[in-house]
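STRUCTURE:
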């Protein structure tokens, strides 16, 4: 994994240097709409801190931030009305995971039925 780049897009959004469509913010997390939504609801939740990845976040973040961040993820999903019908939660990790922005973030997808093709796996062969 690359070292944390303080000029990554999400760091700049956190500092208020770039705009975002904010849906939630507290002391631990910021949530905003993905600029290229892949579902009727597509929101990104990012922790307030300099963490490249899930591994980095889990190893380095203080316990208060870990708990606060994951509670914020759950709250955003609930507040967006995603709980009753369900939603998908994704965190791309590193190059093989397809991570493009190296500030740890969680995608929340909702508002439609998600495919079962996890990880872009091909559909099972029909017999
Ligand atoms: P990934 O790092 O692959 O998990 O995904 C990064 C996500 O950030 C992509 O879904 C992009 O569409 C999204 N994204 C990139 N720039 C912005 C931005 N300025 N505002 C909101 N979302 C963004």
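SEQUENCE:
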């Amino acid at each position: 994994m690359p070292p944390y780049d303080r000029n990554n897009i999400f760091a700049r959004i956190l500092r208020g240097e770039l705009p975002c469509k904010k849906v939630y913010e507290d002391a631990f997390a910021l949530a905003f709409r993905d600029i290229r939504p892949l579902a009727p609801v597509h929101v990104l939740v990012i922790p307030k801190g300099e963490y490249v990845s899930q591994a980095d976040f889990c190893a380095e973040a203080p316990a208060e931030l870990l708990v606060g961040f994951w509670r914020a993820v759950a709250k955003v999903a609930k507040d967006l009305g995603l709980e009753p019908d369900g939603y998908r939660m994704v965190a791309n990790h590193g190059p093989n995971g397809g991570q493009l922005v190296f500030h740890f973030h969680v995608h929340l997808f909702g508002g439609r039925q998600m495919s079962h093709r996890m990880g872009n796996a091909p559909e099972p062969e029909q017999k």
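REMARK: The radius of gyration is 15 Å.
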